[in-house]
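Design a sequence for this backbone.
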């Protein structure tokens, strides 16, 4: 459960960082385009717009990488959740089997059922 909580926290923080980078990148791109359009008369000021837009694109791409990382972490956490549920169901089934086994009064039947339970849990089969 701690591992799941850690992974979920990691995915949330990666998503938050991705949104921050995407927002900053989009703002820088818009400022760069605005500078390029507004100050297009001189070559030097055009250069500032191009550089600013390029930096914005890079920041946006970095934000997308964080977003992708968050998506991968969330998919992994979903798979972990399925595995945890299966483990919990198996543990509950084992507890129920042991409780039912304790209710069997016939010692021979109880021994056979115990052997069957042990074989099932170990994945063994009787030789033929």
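Sequence:
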């Amino acid at each position: 459960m701690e591992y799941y909580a850690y992974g979920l926290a990691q995915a949330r923080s990666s998503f938050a960082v991705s949104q921050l980078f995407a927002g900053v990148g989009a703002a820088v791109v818009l400022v760069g385009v605005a500078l390029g359009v507004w100050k297009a008369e001189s070559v030097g000021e055009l250069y500032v717009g191009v550089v600013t837009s390029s930096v914005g694109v890079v920041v946006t791409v970095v934000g997308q990488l964080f977003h992708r990382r968050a998506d991968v972490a969330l998919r992994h956490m979903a798979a972990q959740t399925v595995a945890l549920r299966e483990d919990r169901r198996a543990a509950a089934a084992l507890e129920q089997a042991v409780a039912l086994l304790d209710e069997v009064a016939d010692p021979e039947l109880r021994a056979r059922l115990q052997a069957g339970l042990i074989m099932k849990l170990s994945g063994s089969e009787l030789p033929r």
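DSSP finds three helices and no strands in the chain.
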